[in-house]
Amino acid sequence: MPLAQLWQLLRALHPAYLPFDAWPAEPRVHVLLFAHRVDGLPPGAYLLPRSLAGADRLRQALPTELTLAPVPHAPADAPLLCVSENPALAGTLRTLNCHQALGSDAILGFALLAEFNPLPDPAAYRERFQEAGLLGQVLYLEAEALGLRGTGIGCFFDDALHQLLGLPEPAASAPLQSVYHFTIGQPVLDERISTEPPYAHLANPLTPPTP
How many domains does the chain have? Predict the structure, then answer.
């Protein structure tokens, strides 16, 4: 993937742009990016805070050993931070995604990190997942726009990801929680899947039509 396409994709996640400008709350879900195959960006883990206040909260939540250096030439509306330049993280992401090959074979992998503890009220728990779901939908659309495909991942080892980031134990009380994973890459079409027109099952009814 060219670096310019990565910036295009990450800018689409900015809270000031559609559809996030309709989101009624401050952004509380941030993006941990695993870049495997991006021209001009070393393979490794990167963090995309989705607000200035969120960037401060992320720095407070993560170990001080993580320098979170700004990526040179990143757009102002995609302020990417480097967590670790390490090609071996592709294999790590495969493990984190329940040993699924798409974790390492993809161009990009994502873990959406939600601010959790403390939560202001019970409804905030639901809102964190709704925000993550909206981010996932935008990633699907942006992948298609780039001629790629996206895959949402519901099976992942959240505790292991928290350990990778050095978040405090137990994970249930950590200030950040991994709530959704996603990958983007070249599509591998499943030829077993067929497409039929709407209501195709009504074309051959068991009973004659009513006159």
Answer: 1
Total length of the chain:
211
Q: What is the pLDDT along the chain (211 residues), one digit of tens a residue?
A: 999 999 999 999 999 999 999 998 899 999 999 999 999 999 999 999 999 999 999 999 999 889 899 999 999 999 999 999 999 889 999 999 999 988 899 999 999 999 988 888 889 999 999 999 999 999 999 999 999 999 999 899 988 999 999 987 766 677 899 999 999 999 888 788 888 899 888 887 777 767 6
55 contact partners, CB below 8 Å, separation of at least 6:
49, 79, 81
| CATH at 117 | 3.40.109.10
Q: Which domain holds residue 36?
A: 3-189
Q: In this structure, how many other beta carbons lie within 10 angstroms of the beta carbon of residue 13?
A: 23
Domain assignment present for residue 198? The answer is no
pTM equals: 0.87
